[in-house]
Fold this protein.
Amino acid sequence: MIKLRNLARRFESGRAFTYVLRDINIDVPEGEFVTIMGPSGAGKTTLLNILGMLDGAFEGEYHFLGTAVHELPLKDRAKLSRANVGFVFQQYHLLDDLTVYENLAVPLSYRNVKPSEQAALVADTLDRFQIVGKKNLFPRQLSGGQQQLVGVARAVIASPKLILADEPTGNLHSRQGREVMELFKQLNAEGTTIIQVTHSEENARYSRRIVQLRDGWIEGDNAVPSAA
């Protein structure tokens, strides 16, 4: 599904450049569950943004589902991402002027789902995440944990081929966090590819493989001995 070759990302720093990622070579087959770990500043979120086609200013090659992303114009990258990728952002990124119901419907509109089907999918998702009572509220009316739940629900509602999650349980209490990770485990068992960034050893055990980053380099890439 994903193939990265000699991928690098640098930012201008005065008259010089600072590399955030260097010489990244990764293969992620379809159906994999990968955790990316490492200290702050290791390049984890930058890598996730590149994988999600939110950041196109990288060097090297990125192939996704057989498509050379690095050769695509920005418009086509966005189209490819919207059709295949679901995001769980650490800072939620819900649309402030839309209700919870409307936020959940957005990914479905990108995939040209019929309005009648949208309504059924949103209703099912609201029930699945136990947020039916919040459907007419705006993000500013929700707690951080509730916004995180909506963010996870939005990521999975359209059954994307790839889910990218940046600290997906960071704002949830322990029970909600376990429920989200169990959902990811179930989705992965059904064939969804998942790549998560986390500092949580407990969450990492749900994955099959851990990629360790440090100072922008891959320091380790190992299978998880036993899944949660």
